Fold these 3 entries.
Entry 1:
Amino acid sequence: MTTPPRVAVDDRVPAPAGSVLAIRGGRPLRGRVDVKGAKNLATKAMVATLLGETASTLRDVPDLSDVAVVRSLLEVHGVTVTEGDEPGSLVLDPSEVESAHYEEIDAHAGASRIPILFCGPLLHRLGQAFIPDLGGCRIGDRPIDFHLDALRKFGAVVEKQPSGIRLSAPNGLKGANIHLPYPSVGATEQVLLTAVRAQGVTELRNAAIEPEIMDLIAVLQKMGAIISYEPNRVILIEGVETLRGYDHRAIFDRNEAASWACAALATDGEIFVAGAKQQEMLTFLNVFRKAGGWFDVQEDGILFRREGELKPVIVETDVHPGFMTDWQQPLIVALTQAKGRSIVHETVYENRFGFTQALVKMGADIEVYPHGLQDGPRRVPRRELEQAAVITGPTPLHAADIVVPDLRGGYSHVIAALAAEGESQVSGVDILSRGYEKFLDKLSALGADFDVVR
Ligand code: EPU
């Protein structure tokens, strides 16, 4: 398993401010954090504004680098983005949408995965689109074949170029019958954002049904779209000629909420996650409880802490309503302190255990099986790319110098350093600004003992 290349702690390489932390662990995290709108909804709802004739207002937009990338890419296409009438709200006005210069688009290459979702909306608005090379966490191959196959079914002409993808729709976009090979979140969003203004009806089978997708459907319905959700992962979309702007408050970030819950578990602390809601976290809460966690669902958030000894669990990551792949990394840090053997099967991405190497360096007993475990019947059918991690605990964690590999893995490294005895140096922490708003402020508010080295 390869760990993506990252900048090591090295005086010759200038690091962005807040990228290297000296963390003194062994102190429980206690207090309150506020979780705002989900990264994985807000960025897509921002793209949806391109489809409207009038301005949209998005509320609870998190201050994250992915949001900044999408905002900038919208702006180079002529969308005017201004602050709204309350903190964290944005008004996005698409009335002057125009083709952007290649250089302006290319400046966003490698920065995020969201630009792939500009395809349908730009084809509807301009009849053509150029999408720069994609970025995002290196947690597997992350192909876009489902996206491109779906776009071709709508009638788009897709041309792969050395620095991106050029698309056109010489005969307009028409509704299509699409069966996804896997319920991909991104491909489902691609279909939704394209079908709402395509001519005729689109039937999407094997769709992803994550709460963030349901929230995107709510956004599109506010804009005038006609979308129905049928049993068995089927979504029907009747194309309409025009859409208007929306006013919408983004669904809360369940990935961030789960991360802080695991931080409470791993450091034996107590964290109130304001803004967290139960319905979207049912699966997480079950596993949290089985692992020895205690929670109290309150009107404005959820309180998380340990209840006695941590216990081992067996978890399979899966598409919704299963246990999300983005939750396993912080959970594994807590499981290093559980008495016995836990198993985490990763079924969504093929390279999402690289972060465990740093935990092993800190004293954890984790064995990764790159081709999965052949161990008896499973709820989730085995996928080719599957891997498993076996965590045996409890093992005391000790300080180490570590370099974070990606967003969720990086979060787990910070939590491990906070749970470990001694002072760790954790570098590359700036990547966390992709998914954790005001991360260092929140750590301070929870009583974490750390310095920003640079
Ligand atoms: N896949 C393909 N071909 C495609 C698209 C996907 O083979 O064309 C495969 C992927 O390689 C992967 C699986 O399908 O094995 C699932 O990928 P999916 O498309 O569902 O993921 P995504 O849309 O790229 C979003 C989130 C991820 C989250 C996954 C799964 C965003 C921006 N990203 O990714 O979030 O892990 O869904 O829920 O919404 C994160 O927030 O850190 C993050 C990685």
Entry 2:
Amino acid sequence: MNLAFLDRPLVSIDTDITIVFLTDTLLDDASDYKVLTQAGFKAKQDQLCLLHEKGVLYCGIEKLNRDSLRSAATVVVRSLKNSNYKSAKTGQYFLKNTKALVEGFMLGYYSFDVYKSKNEASSFKELFISAENFDAAMLDANESKTIIDASKTVSEATNYVRSLVNTIPNDITPPSLALIAQDLADKNNLTCHILDENALEAESMNAMLAVGRASVHQPRLIHISYKPKNPLHVISLVGKGLTYDSGGLSLKSPTSMVSMKMDKAGACAVLGIVKAVSELKLPIEVHGFIGAAENMVGGNAYKPDDVLTAKNGTTIEVRNTDAEGRLVLADTLAYAQQEVNADFLFDYATLTGACMVALGPYTVGMMGHSHTLKHQFSQIAAPSGELLASLPFNTHLKKLLKSEIADISNVGSKPYGGAITAGMFLDNFINEEMKQKWMHFDIAGPAYSETPWDCHPYGATGIGVRFTIEWMHSLLNADKT
Ligand code: BES
Ligand code: ZN
Ligand code: ZN
């Protein structure tokens, strides 16, 4: 589907369908009030009413705000995708809501069909957003276009992440994920450096190597970077790239294992963010570091009882091979800090089921030492369209990581607070001078869902791109003031 802005009033745009969003108060004044009420349309959130003869598709919105419009735009675009209409147009609903409108259309249109043998292409191909506001005022064309173009870029990057995460573990392995990163680098003029198992050994990344040892697909570390001239900031992003997490010898149950292709969602989010930043041409140098490995079983698998020496020299007692993400991240975080002296260091990981227990399946758990960063991320969450909540570190939970035989254990000794103990485990691999610059995002909950919600279909959501880009925009805005 092609979505484009047109600096023209709605009447002068020729399409099959006109999309109109209505609140219940707007419904009272609508020209089609009578026929709409006859049809039972009450302008309830996401309620659709198609007046085919008139070529108008109405959709209810609870309030005239971002969340209502994003959700309604999703419902609208899905119904058009399933129709035989070819094109549609819509006005805007105040500039402040235009980004959410575009997200609803772009993210709502997405579906993942590459493994379907019969692929029915939709006839719906063209969607125009006019400069006209719903109240007939003409909005600023430059501002409209800037918002629409940027939102399209971010949504496309989000859909790119979704497709990578949805791709099956037979098709994305650590070496093939490295090729995908290389391909992105080639297309977007980025640099990409790949470390294979020998290079990882030379870098003493033994925790990561242990996790991937039983797989026939050996681990890779991917370093992809976007380096604009005269950057205002340097940011390192680290992603957990478990192309499959069987749990290893601490094998997952059959039901928990299903969907574990999504354990690479952190890595894919990093690729998506780098893609978006480079296409938006933001004046920020961004380094993506991905620890890619496959957690499998085999005669040479790492074991509960093993002690691993991570890159930074910390010794780790393995008590559960299913807590593998933190082992991969330990080495990847250490490598990222060795390679780049960044202003900020963020990691993205489907790290713990406990985070989902704590916050529910829709919310990212954010952890770190900097109250300023946590505050900034809470502030930009709502405008970004993604949900974030802070989980606080504390010394009592930290003690649960104590090991009798090594420096630390890879799992907490008690079953509660698992998302926080995982975050505090990672803290052992953050250098002193980086403590206040680091944030850990546990995306286990919102990365993947078998129940569609908001603008997300079955499967991967592409979480991480929107909130990170929103934060980067707020960082650049703060530079200006
Ligand atoms: N990849 C999982 C976490 C996960 C679980 C993500 C469910 C998405 C949905 C991670 O590697 C894992 O298995 N974590 C364990 C940690 C435990 C062994 C301390 C978990 O959450 O059960
Ligand atoms: Zn695991
Ligand atoms: Zn995992």
Entry 3:
Amino acid sequence: MSTLTISHLRKTYGPYTAVNDLSFEVPEGCVFGLLGPNGAGKTTTFKCMLDLAQASSGSVLFNGHPLAPAAFEKIAYVPERSVLYDWMTVGEHVEMQRRAFASFDVKAVAELLAQFGIDQRKKARALSKGMRTATMVALAIARRADLLILDEPTSGLDPINQRHVLNLIINESARGATVIFSSHQIGQVERAAERIAVLDRGNLALEGSVDDLKAGRKIVEAIFPSESFSLDGIASDARIARLDRSGRIVRLLVTADANEFVTRLEALGGAGVRIVDLNLEDIFLYAVSPHDATADVVEGAAK
Ligand code: ATP
């Protein structure tokens, strides 16, 4: 099917670097989530993959080859903004895709549009924001592509349709397709994606399998009797990826045996010390969050 390899991708707009030295691979059949705050460079990355924005340097390879017309049939793209023609009906968009792509599945698109409650006789201009997204997703899924590049495919959708799109993404991967998608709904990414990359101001902050990222990190949390407590010997430990101290509460993000840090915090007078499992949202926030001015935050080398 399709492997996507991004190597040292860089995109500048004048003096501004939107994407900086980005490298990661999306393995064949994988659902890959691209996360990042507003303006992190997700859309720019997608555009560079498809040559909609010309990379300043670096490369994007599909099964080891640069993008070429032979690959177009195999790639389906849902852009962040609607690309539907306002003067055409949904059915006319279906017909256009049927004529353009040999693999386009007309029966599947009819079913998908019906599931989303979209009347094919409607003009695109009469569709709500969510209906536009759903129409573009339905058209992309019906392409039976090897690689799907989906820029915020749940944007504007209600929770039921969001879940439906996630299920479609998972089904595409079960069929063998490779999927890369972006979303600000981290819970959705956690549900669907096997691997993620987090972009932060154009840089790759984190990349890996969701299970590995979670398994290798724990939070150890403690409350101290007063605000003046010492963390002697702990603050400088390289196995602490991050230390948040706010009032009487301290939270350590540790990449090593969490029990050891429970013992050490208790020895320093910490009460109610507990180990907390991270979810993807914690991992995301630790990867991208700026220093909190109200808290004393120490970032370690192990991040
Ligand atoms: P969002 O989550 O808000 O959609 P994003 O992660 O997709 O954000 P991009 O749209 O890739 O972010 O934008 C990355 C940065 O590049 C932003 O600072 C944006 O202003 C800048 N940028 C994007 N396109 C252009 C352009 N054509 N000219 C100049 N700057 C641009």
